[in-house]
Amino acid sequence: MYFFLWGVARITYLMLFLHMIIRLMRSHSLFVIVIFSLSFSQTSSKHTFLVTTDKGFIDYANRIIVCRGTAEIEAKTPVDNSLKLVEKNLKIAKAEARTNARSNLIELMKQVNFDGRLVGELMQEEPLIGSRLEGLIGSAYQQGEIEYLEGEKVAIALAVKMSGLSEILTDIDGYKLDSMSPAYLMTSAAVPKSQRISGIVIDAREHAIDPSMSPEVIDMQGNLVYGTISYSRSKAVNKGPVGYAYSMDDRNVSQRVGSNPLFVEAVGSLDDDVYITSMDAAKVREAEKSFGVLSNCRVMLLLQ
Questions:
Q1: Are the CB atoms for 108 and 52 separated by under 8 Å?
Q2: How far is CA 271 from CA 209, 226, 241, in A?
């Protein structure tokens, strides 16, 4: 009996692996596949929704990008004990730090994973994106207090929200239209509140998933369960398709999926996409039909 179940498991994983290969071959003539989550040893590297660099970080959970810029405070002795020159030097240093922070933001934003494609790649495909990103960075706001560092330096952190980035990158077409009276409202009203499914939680902590701004959920037959056709463009921009967390105890879990979510185990991953069983996919589709969890982007991914 043990060897029979072990054989079934191997066949199941092989089917999922072959589907991923076919999916990649349809969109790429040359490709390299690196799949950690399908290995039986499950020795995958840690993937996190917080991507840090020496200049700042990309936070996919809170949908924010933060970069820091530094500048030296020019040391000049004021004449006749006047503090005006000191204030002027400090003002110049702060302005230079902000300029450096904006430059660092541009480079960091190129590393943001939009939908399996980096923003830098999208900028090469469409030059207009670059000029629009510069406009977004021009409206970046200060994050935290100004820092005064050793060696007569000042540091300022600037931030932009991913909603602004999403507004630039998200196409007009390919999304679900907003409905004033969705069908699930009547279905949901007939179910006691304690029994209503408030969201979807997909536990992908055993798989190496690259966080992105627009991931997809796919079943083992290759059918799309959750993607751009599941929600409106306004939801994608303002709320984001999914939330990210490390555990169910994270504060942002209940904020997105409520107190009674449907819990689903991921069975595989490829880049930023998540694979679930066909049985769980049916449950997710039924939850959408009855409670509108997908169209309202009430989906949470748990990462390592």
A1: no
A2: 6, 16, 16
Whole-prediction pTM: 0.77
The pLDDT assigned to 193 comes to 83
Tell me the per-residue pLDDT of 53-68, one tens digit each, with 9 for 90 and over: 999 999 999 999 999 9
Residue found by looking up tokens 């980096």 in the block:
118
- 174 CB neighbour count, 10 Å cutoff: 11
How far is CA 25 from its chain centroid? 25
Beta bridge partners of 81: none
Q: Rounded to 5 degrees, what are φ and ψ at 32?
A: -125, 130
Rounded to 5°, the CA angle 151-157-159 comes to 170
Name all contacts of 135-138 with Cβ < 8 Å and 24+ positions apart: 136/160, 136/164, 136/165, 136/168, 137/102, 137/105, 137/106, 137/109, 138/102
Q: Which region holds residue 240: left if phi is over 0, alpha if psi is between -120 and 50, else beta?
A: left
3-class SS of residue 273:
strand
Mean pLDDT of the 1-24 span: 45
Q: What is the DSSP string of 161-226?
A: EHHHHHHHHS-SSSSPPP-SS-THHHHHHTS-GGGS---EEEE-TTS-----SS--EEETTS-EEE
Signed CA dihedral, 20, 299, 123, 155: sign only: negative
Between the alpha carbon of residue 78 and those of residues 82, 91, 152, 277, the distances in Å are 5, 15, 16, 72
Q: What's the burial of 241, exposed, middle or buried (CB within 10 Å: 0-12/13-18/19+)? A: buried
Long-range contacts from 142-146, C-beta under 8 angstroms, 24+ separation: 143/66, 146/94
